[in-house]
Amino acid sequence: MREQILVVDNGKIVQAGKHEDLVEEEGIYRRFILGRQEAENWKI
How many domains does the chain have? Predict the structure, then answer.
């Protein structure tokens, strides 16, 4: 069984694939991952 991430926007699948592939292409998933990484580095 191949693991796959599905990205849904407005009820439609807009991206599908493995994490490694999705972070390499421009899209919602990449922006989400990059934003999450930035948030992890925030310090007060």
Answer: 1
Q: What does the pLDDT look like over 22-40, one tens digit per residue?
A: 999 999 999 999 998 888 8
Residue with tokens 């919602």: 28
Please work out, in degrees rounded to the nearest 5, the angle formed at the alpha carbon of residue 8 by the alpha carbons of 23 and 6: 55
Model pTM score:
0.78
Alpha-carbon span 14 to 23, nearest angstrom:
14
Give the domain extent around 32.
Answer: 5-40
For residue 44, count CB atoms less than 10 angstroms from its CB and return exposed for 0-12, middle for 13-18, buried for 19 or more.
exposed
